[in-house]
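Chain particulars:
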Amino acid sequence: LLSPPTAIEVRKEVGYTVANICCGGDGSEGDPVAITELASQGGLKGFLDLVGSADPEAAALGLQFLEMAARAVPETRHAVEQLGGIETIRNVQLTLPNDERVKQMALALINK
């Protein structure tokens, strides 16, 4: 018997779906058109919310998406900054102090 999914589980599933669409579904470098459209519709905020969550898998998903978006569409970096995303990414050190992998992902993204 299945229990209903939690809100973070639903948000992660949506995040994975959107990320797959934006990367072309094959783990490629990212589809600039899809990423630009997502950014224009305010979709980067959802990935920043994942980064700021206390769920390591959600935070990793958000960081991976933001890294792909910045690679495919460098202008997304500015949009992330305007949304307060740099602070959110830096706060991963505090939100997930015991998850070295996620902390390293956040540090790498900040240093790019």
Q: What stands out?
A: The chain has a mean pLDDT of 92. Helices lie at 7-22, 32-40, 44-51, 56-72, 76-82, 85-90, 92-95, 100-110. The radius of gyration is 14 Å. The CA atoms of residues 67 and 109 lie 6 Å apart.
